[in-house]
Amino acid sequence: MTEVKLSAAVTGYGREGDTEPLPMAVAERPAGGSWLAWLGTDGRVYLGRLDCDDKLVGTPTSFAGIDLQDVHADRTGGVVLLTRKGDCGGGKLCGGSSSPCRTMHMVRFDDTGRQVWERQVTNLGGSRTGYDDGARFVWWYQHHGRLATDGKNYAAYFGVAITVRNGSCVDIHEGDRMQVVDANGKLVSGHRDSFEVGCSHSWTTRIVWDPRTSHYAMVCATDNACRIAQPDPYRTVAAGACDGSLFGGDLVLAPTGGYWTAWSQGGGVRLERFTTGRSNLTVRTTAKSSHPHLVSYGTGRMLLAWASGSSIAAQVYDAATGKTVGAKFTVNVKDHDYLAFKAYSDGSAAYPAAGGGNRSIRIARVLPLA
């Protein structure tokens, strides 16, 4: 564990709800080290470079943003996914209380951390505001998102508000949206994996690039038949129940084709292996948690982690068979329901967590397994 001293205060964990801001994210920098992003308390998202000892080097940069979603890196820089203020316009809601309308953006940065371009992946702007028919924006509904890349383009998969005219007023629904942006910051129109709306209602949206199929793979938790599903079109991965305890975890590649996803129902954590549609292997773990984390861990293994008291418990699994490898162990940082472990090419996995105060972040690194 490494304590990273920050130049700007980081937003606290808060209530950790699926509509609350996310405080921090980390990603491997292919040239070595990491990019660390955090949500400041001043309406800015900060980006700093960590060396191979997880120490902050250089001067962090920042971008306008009121909520951080994810950060992903490549050999010439990377992309941070964040939300910004938008405009609801003068439309009328059919019912319920108004909420600020916001937009989701990818911000491209170079290998020094400086901005190269930005692209909105919601659709407000011009003559379209949040309360106009056909708007896709970020409301108070679940809106967290994740990034993935095919090595050239970047994809964002996130919860989205959906505006539908209903007579003289509009209703706001909730689903999810996947958009692809090319290396020049332009939306890739009609990308075969992108969609306006996939799962609805949707939460815990997860995405990974699969180089074996040359497709982005995604899963969501949804109250459409109450399940863990693949979106657009719906394909059930695992059947659940809409009792308030259905949550998705993360999505990783399985070594022999297909994927693993972690999810929770009633506080019990399961692992599911699937290709297209229903799971072909279910592992009922001993973990008791509503929000499990799952990450690829070296060659042929994966790491499952979950909140356990004031720290995190973790267990390694064989990614081919789903069998445990070694004993359960403890990661001595505070868990957050919606933050992510990230895999590294050296076989380690890293997790950004709350530090000793609002001017530090702790990077917990699980070293490679021999």
Number of strands: 28
Order of helices and strands: EEEEEEEEEEEEEEEEEEEEEEEEEEEE
What is the alpha-carbon Rg in Å? 19 Å
Main β-sheet, spatial strand arrangement:
1-28-27-26
Largest sheet: 4 strands, antiparallel
Name the quaternary structure.
single chain
Number of helices: 0
Helix content: under 10%
Low-confidence stretches: none
User: Helices and strands: which structural class?
Assistant: mainly beta
Proportion in β-strands: over 45%
First-last Cα distance: 19 Å
| General form | globular
Mean pLDDT: 97
What's the layout of helices and strands?
Elements: E1 2-5, E2 24-28, E3 34-39, E4 44-50, E5 56-64, E6 67-74, E7 77-85, E8 102-110, E9 115-120, E10 136-137, E11 145-149, E12 154-166, E13 169-181, E14 202-210, E15 215-222, E16 227-230, E17 235-239, E18 247-253, E19 259-265, E20 268-274, E21 281-288, E22 293-296, E23 301-308, E24 311-318, E25 324-331, E26 342-343, E27 349-354, E28 360-366
Antiparallel strand pairs: 1-28, 2-3, 3-4, 4-5, 6-7, 7-8, 8-9, 10-12, 11-12, 12-13, 14-15, 15-16, 16-17, 18-19, 19-20, 20-21, 22-23, 23-24, 24-25, 26-27, 27-28
